[in-house]
Amino acid sequence: MQEIRMLLVDDEDDFRITLTKRLKLRKVNITDVASGNEAIEMVKQNSFDVAVIDVKMPGMDGIETLKQIKQIEPLIEIVMLTGHASIESGMEAMKLGAYDYVMKPCDIDELLIKSGDAYQHKLLKEKEKTG
Q1: Tens digit of pLDDT per residue, the chain (131 long)?
Q2: Pairing state of beta strands 50-54 and 5-9?
Q3: Could you tell me the pTM of the whole model?
């Protein structure tokens, strides 16, 4: 199976750095950034299969980041990270094109499963697009 190229967007440094290390140990090709603006620049410069985006961030929040990333790269699949208080945000994100959402603090296996499912969905969309 091809390696998933993942972008992690979260303003909480400890969470983001720890999750990135844990995913790298599981052989995920991951890039992490601390803001929506950084994520948009990364998507303009690199190709990603799945973006994992925190809903609540200062400045540009996860919902706005989702919208802008989807405008740049419509086929990228997005999994939102949401706290218990913002399940509604996760649902709203799915209406705007997110593939799924995961509750924070997230279980790494659940995140890997949902990211893998999102990646398979992206591959199907690419196949449909190319015929």
Answers
A1: 468 999 999 999 999 999 999 999 998 999 999 999 999 999 999 999 999 999 999 999 999 999 999 999 999 999 999 876 667 777 788 888 999 999 888 889 999 999 999 999 999 998 888 87
A2: parallel
A3: 0.93
E strand map for 1-131:
5-9, 29-33, 50-54, 77-82, 100-103
Q: Identify the CATH class of 5-130.
A: alpha beta
What are the backbone dihedrals phi and psi of residue 43, each rounded to the nearest 5 degrees, phi first? -65, -35
Cα–Cα distance between 72 and 91 in angstroms, integer? Answer: 22
E-state strands within 10-131? 29-33, 50-54, 77-82, 100-103
- What are 17's strand-pairing partners? none
**CA 105 – CA 102 distance, rounded (Å):** 9
